Amino acid sequence: MGVDVTTTMSEFPWIVRLGQIISPMPGLQWISWICGGTLISERHILTAAHCFSDSSLMNFLVNYIARIGDLDFDSNDDGAHPVEVLIKEIIIHNKYNDISHENDAAVLKTDRKVQFTSMLLPACLPLDNMKNKNLEGEEVSIAGWGDTKYQGSSPNMLLEAKTFLITQKECKTAYSKLPTAVIDNRTLCAASPGIDSCQADVFMIIIALSLSAGSSHQAVMITMQS
Questions:
Q1: Is 81 left (phi over 0), alpha (psi -120 to 50) or beta?
Q2: 190 and 139 Cβ atoms separated by less than 8 Å
Q3: DSSP bridge pairs for 221
Q4: What pLDDT band is residue 91 in, cutting at 50, 70 and 90?
Q5: Residue 72 contacts residue 9 (beta carbons within 8 Å)
Q6: CA 215, CA 198: separation in Å to the nearest integer?
Q7: Are strands 205-209 and 61-68 parallel, antiparallel or unpaired?
Q8: Per the confidence metrics, is the pTM higher than 0.85?
Q9: Are 15-110 and 128-221 the same fold in CATH?
Q10: 203 CB neighbour count, 10 Å cutoff
Q11: Are strands 28-39 and 15-25 parallel, antiparallel or unpaired?
Q12: How far from 42 is each of 68, 91, 111, 142, 163, CA to CA, in Å?
């Protein structure tokens, strides 16, 4: 991320960190944290399809794990009570294109239900009345544990950056040098000077404050690679 602030426990109760449990041989395994996602039900997580297309792991036994409700990954005294669940099923959008990243979406099914608490809650999916609404200029948030600068190290704390939705024309101009990028009426783009989602956070969900329901959050898109 560019300009960012540390979040509090109650701001993103739906945020998920996804990892690969890699076992190159019996008795040896480790977790590689690769992506982020959003909890959308007791057993479902919304994330990006390209998180699960790493061909370099084909010769390893790989399982996936989700950690929900964490704040500081290196602390047990941050007030968080994270829950870890295994991923039972990966459902990738049937029209996902791994070159253009079109339809870059996946839904993960966990091996058991997540018990909701004040610190573990699902994000709302967009309401029907949001489908044709012009959101240009609306402030949105990017949250995650991604790098805070180019080729920097990932932070331990969950961070948030504020940015604004831009027009499709501006978005197409920004991506004009990437001929494989698909920018159409299914795409929302956000930009502010010095603010973006970096590396691990390209898999985080951009969320916007509901325009009609207090401070609830709606998961409106999965970010593309910047």
A1: beta
A2: no
A3: 206
A4: very high
A5: no
A6: 26
A7: unpaired
A8: no
A9: yes
A10: 25
A11: antiparallel
A12: 11, 16, 10, 23, 29
What residue segments make up the domains of the chain, in order of their start?
15-110, 128-221
Residues 163-220: tens digit of each pLDDT: 888 888 888 888 888 777 788 877 778 877 655 554 443 334 455 443 444 455 566 5
Q: Does domain 15-110 have CATH number 1.10.238.10?
A: no
Paired strand residues for 110:
87
CATH assignment of 128-221, given 2.40.10.10, 3.20.20.30, 3.40.50.720, 1.10.3720.10?
2.40.10.10
Residue 85 tokens read as 């669940």
Cα angle 164-97-90, degrees, rounded to a multiple of 5 = 90
pLDDT at 213: 45
CA 25 to chain centroid? 30
**One-letter amino acid for residue 90 of the chain:** I
Percent of the chain scoring above 70 in pLDDT:
67
Bridge partners of 64, per DSSP, are 20
Q: 112-151 burial string, b = 16+ CB within 10 Å, else e?
A: eebeeeebbbbbbeeeeebeeeeeeeeebbbbbbbbbeee
Mean pLDDT of the chain: 75
Q: How many CB atoms neighbour CB 51 within 10 A?
A: 22
pLDDT in tens, 33-86: 888 889 999 999 999 888 887 655 555 567 899 999 887 766 666 666 889 999
* Interatomic CA distance for residues 168 and 121, integer angstroms: 32
